[in-house]
Amino acid sequence: MANPIPFGLNGTTTKVTATGTSANGTISMGGNTSILVTNTGTATAFIRSSPSAATAVVTDTPVIAGSAQTFSIPPDHVSVAAITAGTSCDVYFTVGSGQ
Predict the structure, then answer these.
(1) What does the alpha-carbon distance between residue 45 and residue 70 come to, in Å, rounded to a whole number?
(2) Which of 31, 34, 50, 56 is the least crowded, having the fewest Cβ atoms under 10 Å away?
(3) Concatenated DSSP letters for 28-52?
């Protein structure tokens, strides 16, 4: 069984304040293929990435309140978005590589 490569911080962090309406931000992948998504709020946030202006909906990928998850995304995705079912929360998208 292969050992996973730890997440390496190789880029910047973008903060998106998620509410009941989709909010988006811009990231620069710089050749990286992973993002660490941290939800510091008390509500589940639903996230999406896109090569152009991303718009999140509540059926997108959930990030549970108070958690952080790493995702692989295509290097041409420069827009990230987050939404909640109501309560606002801050979601941080950090560019890097690995898991």
Answers:
(1) 14
(2) 31
(3) --TT--EEEEEE-SSS-EEEEEESS
